[in-house]
Amino acid sequence: MGRRLRDGNVASHTPQNPRTNSCSRWELGVCAAVMACVSEFYAGKCVLITGATGFMGKVLVEKLLRSCPEVKALYLLIRTKQGQSSQQRIHTTLQSKLFDRLREENPDFHKKIIPVSSELTQPGLALSDEDVQTLTQNVHIIFHCAATIRFDEPLKHALQLNVIATQQLLSLAQQMQQLHAFIHISTAYANCNRHHIDEVIYPPPVEPGKLIHSLEWMDDAIIRDITPRLIGDWPNTYTYTKALAECVVQQESGKLNVGIIRPSIVGASWQEPFPGWIDNFNGPSGVFIAAGKGILRTMRASNDAVADLIPVDVVINLTLAAGWYTAVHRPKSVLVYNCTTGGINPFHWGEIEHHVMSTFKRNPLEQAFRRPNANITSNYLINQYWILVSHKFPALLYDLFLRLSGQKPQMMRIFNRLHKAIGLLEYFSSQDWEWNSDNMNMLMNQLSTEDRKMFNFDVRQLNWPEYIENYCIGTKKYVLNEDMADIPAARQHLRKLRNIRYTFNTVLLVFIWRVFIARSQMARNICDPLLPDLTTDTQKLEYPYQQNTAIYCPCLGPAPAHQAPCTTVYGRMTVYDRVWPYDRVRQCMAVYDSVWPCTTVYGRMAVYDSVRPCTTVYGRMTVYDSVRPCMAVRPCTTPYDRVRQCMAVYDSVRPCTTVYGRVRQCTAVYDSVRPCTTVYGRVRQRMAV
Ligand SMILES: CCCCCCCCCCCCCCCC(=O)SCCNC(=O)CCNC(=O)[C@H](O)C(C)(C)COP(=O)(O)OP(=O)(O)OC[C@H]1O[C@@H](n2cnc3c(N)ncnc32)[C@H](O)[C@@H]1OP(=O)(O)O
Ligand SMILES: NC(=O)C1=CN([C@@H]2O[C@H](COP(=O)(O)OP(=O)(O)OC[C@H]3O[C@@H](n4cnc5c(N)ncnc54)[C@H](OP(=O)(O)O)[C@@H]3O)[C@@H](O)[C@H]2O)C=CC1
User: Fold this and answer.
1) Above 90 in pLDDT, residue 600?
2) Whose CA is closest to atom 2 on ligand 1?
3) Residue 660's pLDDT is what?
4) Average of pLDDT values for 84-108?
5) Is the pLDDT of residue 224 over 80?
6) Which of 50, 74, 149, when mutated, tests ligand 2's pocket best, judged by the most ligand atoms within 8 Å of its CB?
């Protein structure tokens, strides 16, 4: 690694006039024929990069050193953090697997890296005078990647980093004597309040200077209160301040050659330095991991909305090419590149869900909480339902288990954080945008064949299923640092989870059956058609009586009736009793109905009698009511109606042949409906009969 600027040991170089240094059109042709023009352009150049310890910054440093080996020096503006100096931090960053390929190709690559201590939120970027002098003398190209990308960042801090730091960097750039290009990394969602987004800088929601001055004197509590009103149509302070930053870039660019790159949702690498490289939980990566671990089961997203993911290497290739183009062609105004895939090679969230789940089932993550099975829905209520059933309920059970086993409950806490994170992402997964990407296409056409291969950002070639598979495997290998050799053990763990789920579901089903369904005729009527029909098609064709046997013994395997078709209710009852002896009459009715639904009182009675011959009118009436509830079918407004109904039943039990017998029967029935306490009442009863 090159020594820090403060040490004053900067590799000497001959300053070149940016205008004469750029490839002429003739030179471009020669360069293309001999070697890639873009890497030729970076030869001998000093490049300043902010955000080099971040996701995209790292990939930029790696690609620049690998594909432009003649680059002179990389000045990386890095803040001290957690007691580590910028020197130590870059040292740690370079240990990342990301640099393995470069390490192999060029073990001395670190010598070109010069860390510069800089806290971007401080006045003057907290640069020493010496560092300012060296940077202003040497830097040819600036890539400004640093930003806070947190969606919940307090407005003042987001403004300080994303807007004010950009402003300060631009004024430093103005002092640079041989700067060729200033490339600012923005986001495709800076203007997410619009549906169609062109490659232009839109008017800012508020004049950035005014906002900066107003927020200076306000305390944090007031700012927090007015933030929602200030950001208006923007979903968070990140996209809002990125919109303001674009405006600042335009205002302060002066005579600088400036380009703005607007990537959409930056994901794992597609090809370089190797497929699937990713090192953080941001954006979809965290969602994929949570789904792969079986924690996330539901999320609000539209199946049909375009998932505008863009691989990180595509963004970096475009950025380097834009650096070259901006320096060489010096466009008159700030050139904006929408770096997106949706308009060129669209892929949808529903498809992503499918491929993510399929990949994690084949290549499971270690120690999954449940089997991966996430579903996306755009319906708020359905999502809330699944959150309750698939997130909160299992979390409660698991925490209960942890408590009982003397451990600290943690699942509910994890779910609360997950819900906060996905709540912030839903805005981006529930709708889609149209980005114009003419400048990206124009730039591609400007590249030589060689450059197009070396700095490939042609997303038409992107094979999504393959990319998503590599992405998921990348989260496993590089974010979670899991060993691919442990996949068989992870698969075994998933099988164990599946068996636990089957057992749990069976117990739950049996419990629900016994407590609710087996005790209620109405519930049975509702549930019977919903219960799984376990019979095969051949059985259905062969014998209708067989169809429902499985309903009565769903968890205990096939009943004997499957082997020897049962044609009588009695036979059927025998099977039933073996499985689950319980409340004979109710069972009998249920079984009978399942075989031969009984619509007449008579049929019903016949079944009833076969089980428990009825000797009392009351018992008989209960059966009668269960078949054709008298109050429901024909509301009985008078005891007389009831008596008529009862008599019909009564007759079927004990037919009466004498008038006297009839009167006695009637009286008994009548009494059971409305006991009579007066002689007058009795006489009225008899008269009625
Ligand atoms: C199969 C389904 C397919 C459908 C799939 C749809 C995906 C739909 C993606 C849309 C994506 C749009 C992206 C816009 C395009 C840009 O503009 S890109 C810039 C993107 N910026 C981000 O993604 C930053 C978002 N993150 C944040 O704002 C903050 O991390 C959060 C989410 C507010 C959490 O903050 P915090 O509570 O202070 O904690 P933090 O330490 O940051 O993280 C807490 C936990 O959340 C986890 N976490 C962080 N981010 C995430 C995440 N994205 N997901 C899950 N967990 C996360 C962390 O791993 C951590 O877990 P533990 O390690 O503690 O177990
Ligand atoms: N990731 C994505 O999906 C997308 C990102 N972008 C844009 O790309 C750029 C890079 O994003 P990404 O790499 O993902 O972000 P990261 O969060 O991974 O990296 C942010 C970088 O900024 C640096 N930084 C933050 N605060 C300061 C500070 N006060 N002083 C000095 N350096 C600081 C961080 O350094 P440190 O290590 O010290 O924290 C880190 O190197 C951003 O401008 C972002 O807006 C745009 C679209 C999508």
Assistant:
1) no
2) 353
3) 61
4) 94
5) yes
6) 149
Top pLDDT among 32 and 63 is at 63
Classify burial at 483, counting beta carbons within 10 Å of its beta carbon; exposed 0-12, middle 13-18, buried 19 or more. exposed
For residue 3, pLDDT beyond 50: no
Token reading at 52: 């080099």
Name which of 145-159, 436-450, 652-666 the model is least confident about.
652-666
The pLDDT, as a whole number, for residue 12 is 34
Q: Residue 687: is its pLDDT beyond 50?
A: yes
Q: What gap in Å lies between CA 606 and CA 611, rounded to an integer? A: 9
Residue 588 tokens, joined: 């009998």
d(CA 38, CA 189): 28
ipTM for the complex? 0.91
Q: Is 260 in the pocket of ligand 2 (CB under 6 A)?
A: no
pTM beyond 0.90 = no
Closest atom of ligand 2 relative to the 161 alpha carbon: 29
Give the mutation target among 55, 148, 150, 469 for probing the ligand 1 site: most ligand atoms within 8 A of CB: 150
Hey, what's the torsion of the CAs at 93, 96, 100, 104, to 10 degrees?
Answer: 40
Q: Is 119 in the pocket of ligand 2 (CB under 6 A)?
A: yes
Structure tokens at 137: 């003398």
| Phi, psi dihedral angles at 19 (to 5 degrees) | -70, -35
Percent of the chain past pLDDT 90, that is, above it, reads: 65
Binding pocket residue ranges, ligand 1, CB within 6 Å: 149-152, 187, 189, 265, 281-284, 286-287, 290-291, 299, 301, 349, 352-353, 356, 374, 376, 417-418, 420-421, 424-425, 428-429
Q: How far is the CA of 513 from the centre of ligand 2 (A)?
A: 55
The single residue listed with the structure tokens 């010096």 is 330
Scanning the structure block, which residue is given the tokens 């309750």?
388
Q: What is the pLDDT of residue 544?
A: 35
Q: How many Å apart are CA 433 and CA 608, to the nearest integer?
A: 67
| 49, 56, 82: residue to mutate for ligand 2 pocket, most atoms within 8 A of CB | 56
Residue 370: CB atoms within 10 A of its CB come to: 18
Residues in Cβ contact with 424 at an 8 Å cutoff, skipping those fewer than 6 apart? 151, 152, 235, 236
- Out of 59, 76, 79, mutate this one to test ligand 2's pocket (max ligand atoms within 8 Å of CB): namely 79
Distance 531 CA to ligand 1 centre (A): 40
The residues facing 265 across adjacent strands are: 309
Q: Specify the ligand 2 atom closest to the Cα of 162.
A: 43
